[in-house]
Amino acid sequence: MRHQRLFVPVLALFLVTAPAVTASAQGEAVLGAPGFGARALQALVDGIQFGAIIAITAVGLSLIFGTIHLINFAHGELVTIGATFAFFLNVSPAGPGWHLIPAAIAAVAFGALLGGAIDRGLWRPLRARGTGMINLFIATIGLSLLLRHVVLVLYGARPGSYAQYDIQSAIDLGPVGITPRDLTVTLLSVLVLLGIAALLQRTRIGTAIRAVSVNRDLAEASGIDVQRVVLVVWMLGGALAALGGVFFGLVEIVTWDMGFKLLLLMFAGIILGGLGSAYGAMAGSLVIGIVAQMSTLWFPVDLQYAWALLALIVVLLIRPQGILGRRERVG
Amino acid sequence: MDWSVIFSDAVRSGIGPIAAVYALAAMGLNLHFGYTGLLNFGQVGFMLVGGYGLAITVATWGGPMVLGVLVGLASAVVLALLLGLPTLRLRADYLAITTIAAGETLRLFYRSSWAEPVTGGVYGLQRFANDFYEISPIPRGTYGVWLVEFSSRDVWVLIVAWALVALVGLLLALLVHSPWGRVVRAIREDETAVRSLGKNVYAYKMTSLVLGGVIGAAAGMLQAIQVQSVSPDTFDPGVTFFLYTLLVLGGAGRILGPVVGSILFWFVLSFLDSALRQAIDAGYVSPELISTSEIGAVRFALVGLALIVLIAFRPQGLLGSRKEMMLGAR
Amino acid sequence: MPADAARPRSPLAPLDGVAPEPGVRKPDPLLVLDGVTRAFGGLVAVRVDHLEVQRGAITALIGPNGAGKTTLFNVVSGFDRADGGRWSFDGQPLSGRSAHQMARRGLVRTFQLTRTLARLTVLENMKLAAVGQRGERLLPALLPPLWRGQEREIERRADELLERFQLARLRDDYAGTLSGGQRKLLELARALMAQPVMVLLDEPMAGVNPALTQSLLGHITQLRDEGLTVCFVEHDMDVVMGISDWVAVMAGGRLVAEGPPHTIGRNRAVVDAYLGKQHDEPEATGETGEAGETRETGEEE
Questions:
Q1: Which residues form the signal peptide (chain B) (predicted)?
Q2: What gap in Å lies between CA B13 and CA B269, rounded to an integer?
Q3: Which of C284, B165, B298 is nearest to A152 (CA)?
Q4: pLDDT at site A320
Q5: Which of A78, A137, A261, B8 is the most exposed place for a label (fewest CB within 10 A)?
């Protein structure tokens, strides 16, 4: 099991570095017009970038699922709110017109607060009323509808871009071109993912989160303050979702339903990696991002999300417990 | 503000064709979720394959409408088998996520430029239900009482739609009160116990998924027929969320739950819409706060809020029993 | 008390001459296990070379925590898959069959944590368990006349059993409202509705008050006297000594000892298994524990 835990971050790291290495190797070999190999590499790099952003948002969703077994259908809205809050601070005429970097930091803090508020203000009272798990799923649907449409009223239906880093020319790295913005986002995403891995493995709170995920009752009995752990997980999830939202808004565009669209890809990543495993969510999300981008080599762009979701269904057919999940003992 | 207009709008919506379509789709979902305990979050996918099965057969391939209906129903069976095969042996949450993903995947495929020659892409398909309207026995004109009026065309749709709701309700009532229904309800409670008593749980769950899916497909066809058009974006995942809302509102695990829920849901939604519009026009609500173009968003936000409040204070819905609900709290 | 009273009457002459050693042949075995193994990750949870369960007897399966008793139950009843081995029930090879198939063949189990169906009434819980119901198939279910008669017959049988298990007055209550002890009774009664040849009871007395324990013991012995084969997992040695005709002991996934209850307490392998350490004395003093077994057990620890 020890090895299995190490395996994932290593795999994630490999997935990130391998293309870079092959890219430079290929760069020397292919110097002409962009052939299929070059396009494939470009798609791979785009896929890693996309996957890393999904992974940031999906880890929080996965941790929430791991600790309280709740499928949070409103997680996508936390992403949207992060992106639109930063937009408000950065671009909106009614806002203060901050530079994107402080705006993003403020959005992440807001995401954490929102996550915490949802836990304290909604889930905990509902649990205290004896609301069953499945009804809580349904309540997250309600929350998703509520938040999404509040954003629609406040933000509007028009897509928007941040004031900084909007249009940049790509730097050529051999056959692969990437804008400094996208490169930075990708590297930051990977750093954040490694940071979460370090948090889970090395810190007291990380150990507590893992303990609660494995066995809540046992964790409680051994003196872990489960309520506090759950609160931290919600705040972490909210913060990561907001960060993912800003990143996605930066490389793509800010819209009122961006999070809801990402939600399904997060789900796909989580299931692919094995429900409830944080590292599985990271690996699964990377796969989903790569599948989505690589599919554009053969199929129209408007189907790229569809292929990613289809990959999920295919994996379930072959390996139901996900890439890294384990079977459970019944009875 | 003209309350009679607001009320008549709401009544028209509450008994209208869309309420019947949603009642029917939610009846299928009720079999899944309310009786068998299957967390299907992709009921809209069944509606989509039903509606498109009909539309493609008639509009694209020029087949007869009866064949289209059969194709629509058969597509739902295939979809249910495809979804159930990998997920029904797994924990309930896998089905939830897979179904919502499958519904959205279908929508993306049907709307893609790649599928456009068959599905009409983002524009969808139109005018495939002429056969249905030709056999209408209702003479031309408008029918109704007070301000609630329907055209003869709508009356024909309404009769067929609500008759279908009644028929399906009757069949479901027979089923859930039979030994078959007992097994299915037992699976909702604890499938391991049911397996230990010699029942093939997997087969029952699959049957339920197929049956509820076929009912969903019928609802999708009804919706397509009603507007003589299918377009991919009417089948977004939000539809399933509405179905859950009205199911919880009426009472999951009650035969009439989806019917009462749907009528009330559309009544309230239309009431809000109409009332907000008039309030803005009359100047009671400042257009700065909510403009008329935002009414749609506001009422959906209110639906979300209502769902949370409902789950918190009356999770059993209008028709359910709180005592029973609390026993099942998992 | 009912247990004690029932003992002398038990028709168990067949087991009298059977040697108390693990894997021993029985005169009329109903369930026969051969080389059954189950591992989780690298951990071997069950490795039973040979075990026979005598028809018409009460067999207790005991052993320390983690001995593999519940896992063995899960494997044999089809709730878990085996990594290897074969087993037959009533002369038919049934290894690898799914849970519902085992139950239909007459091998019905209960669970350590009761699994009553909360939002079904007590009567519905009972009726559910009846096998071969016509109305359980989809199309006949739509035509009540096809199954009404059978349903009445099932209900009559269910009422009889509820009466016998003192649950008759709760018949129309939701099962979720029953107390822990009542649930244990309901689960046993429900298992009987399936008309089993053999029942596997996973800790039937766990968490049950002493008075109800006596009542459950009485029911179990009575069932044995009516011809049912019973195999149960239990921790309470008084219970085991009181009602079982035969005891099988597991430790570290293996079958380490077998015998009539009175021989078990003196068995060296059993003492080792429960004390969880190897004795240092070179010479075994026990009459039943053979040196070979003891050493084998020691290796496992």
A1: none
A2: 9
A3: B298
A4: 67
A5: A261
Chains in contact with A, where contact requires at least 3 CB pairs less than 8 Å apart = B, C
Out of C40, C41, C79, closest to residue A330 by CB: C79
Instruction: Give the Cα separation of A191 and A184 in Å (integer).
Output: 10
- Interface residue B97 vs chain A (CB under 8 A): yes
Cα–Cα distance measured from residue B159 to residue B162, given in angstroms and rounded to the nearest whole number: 6
Are the CB atoms for B128 and B55 separated by under 8 Å? yes
In whole angstroms, give the CA distance from residue A232 to residue A222.
18
Tally Cβ neighbours within 10 Å of residue B165.
24
HEC assignment per residue over B314-327: CCCCCCCCHHHHHH
DSSP H helices, chain A, are: 2-29, 36-68, 75-90, 100-118, 124-128, 133-155, 180-202, 204-214, 216-221, 226-251, 258-273, 278-294, 304-318
What is the full DSSP assignment across A110-157?
A: HHHHHHHHHIIIIIHHHHHTT--HHHHHHHHHHHHHHHHHHHHHHH-S
Note whether C100 contacts B198, CB cutoff 8 Å: yes
Res. B326: pLDDT tops 80: no
Fill in the DSSP letter of residue A33.
Answer: S
Residues 6 or more apart whose Cβ sits within 8 Å of residue B77: B210, B213, B214
B3-329: CATH topology: ABC transporter involved in vitamin B12 uptake, BtuC (1.10.3470)
The reported pLDDT for the residue numbered C223 is: 93
Residue C170, both tokens? 């709760």
As a whole number of angstroms, the distance between CA C216 and CA B62 comes to: 70
What stretches of chain C adopt beta strand conformation (E)?
29-40, 43-54, 58-62, 84-89, 92-93, 107-109, 198-202, 229-233, 246-251, 254-259
Q: Where are the domains of chain B?
A: 3-329
**Rounded Cα distance, A316 and A324, in Å:** 12
Which residues make beta-bridge pairs with C89? C31, C92
Residues of C in contact with A330 (CB under 8 A): 74, 79-80
58-87 in chain A: CB under 8 A from chain B: 65, 69, 71
Q: Judge: B178–C176 Cβ closer than 8 Å, yes or no.
A: no
Residue C244: left (phi > 0), alpha (psi -120 to 50), or beta? beta
Q: Do B76 and B99 touch, CB atoms closer than 8 A?
A: no
Calculate the CA A243 to chain-centre distance.
Answer: 9
Q: How far is CA C217 from CA A52, C5, C112, C116, in A?
A: 60, 11, 16, 20
Note every long-range contact of A301-306, with CB atoms under 8 Å and residues 24 or more positions apart, other chains counting. Answer: A302/B108, A302/B111, A302/B112, A302/B113, A302/B114, A303/B108, A303/B109, A303/B112, A303/B114, A305/A261, A305/A264, A305/A265, A305/B104, A305/B105, A305/B108, A306/B104, A306/B105, A306/B108, A306/B109, A306/B112
pTM across the whole model = 0.88
What is this model's ipTM?
Answer: 0.90
Terminal Cα distance for chain B, rounded: 46
Assess contact for C277 and C95: CB atoms under 8 A.
no
Question: From CA C200, how far away is CA B121, in angstroms rounded?
Answer: 58
Render pLDDT for B30-45 as a digit per residue (tens, 0 to 9): 999 999 999 999 999 9
Tokens at residue A201, please?
A: 């493995």
Pick the closest to residue B183 from C136, A46, C79, A224 (CA basis): C136
Tokens describing residue A224? 């872990």
> Is A245 in contact with A258 (CB distance < 8 Å)?
yes
Nearest to A66 by CA among A208, A192, A191, A194: A208
> How distant is the Cα of A23 from the closest Cα of chain B, in angstroms?
31
Question: Among A51-55, A164-168, C256-260, where is mean pLDDT lowest?
Answer: A164-168
Residue B139 identity: P
For residues B201-206, give the mean pLDDT. 96
A45 vs A22: CA distance, rounded Å: 11
- Candidates A256, A88, A239; CA nearest to A163 is A88
Paired sense of beta strands C229-233 and C198-202, if any = parallel
What are the backbone angles phi and psi of residue C200, rounded to the nearest 5°?
-105, 115
